Amino acid sequence: MGLIDELLGLRVCIDTAPFIYYIEKHQKYLSVIKPVFVEIDAGKIEAITSTITLLEVLVLPFKIGNETLGERYREILLYSEGLTTFEILHEVSEMASKLRAKYSIKTPDAIQIAVGVLYGAEKFLTNDPYLKKVSEIKVLSLGDYLA
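That's the PIN domain-containing protein sequence above. Prediction below.
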């Protein structure tokens, strides 16, 4: 089953890496991730993420002084149809703490997964196969879908 088949008609929480691969046209992953964003734009996949994604994607544009790239990230994360970027509320922080305690995962990963779980995502799309051990949500790793 292909990645699109796994995601169509669902609410999907997307980790930071897939956004970077799509926006920066990553040679290895673009063929896998671009169709996901096409389906999000078409309303066939409902995407969510957290403001942790915004924090993580803006580091490079700030570091290299590329305001255009920063604006592109902001535009997609904050104003796209079919994508909701959730703030980190205390409920998210509490669930993220539980996830960190249970799985020994990093704080940003725990926050992203907590957002997915608390806001009703059926799948979590990442490129970190280590996160597949989380059982609260079905974790899909982009690397598993490379041709």
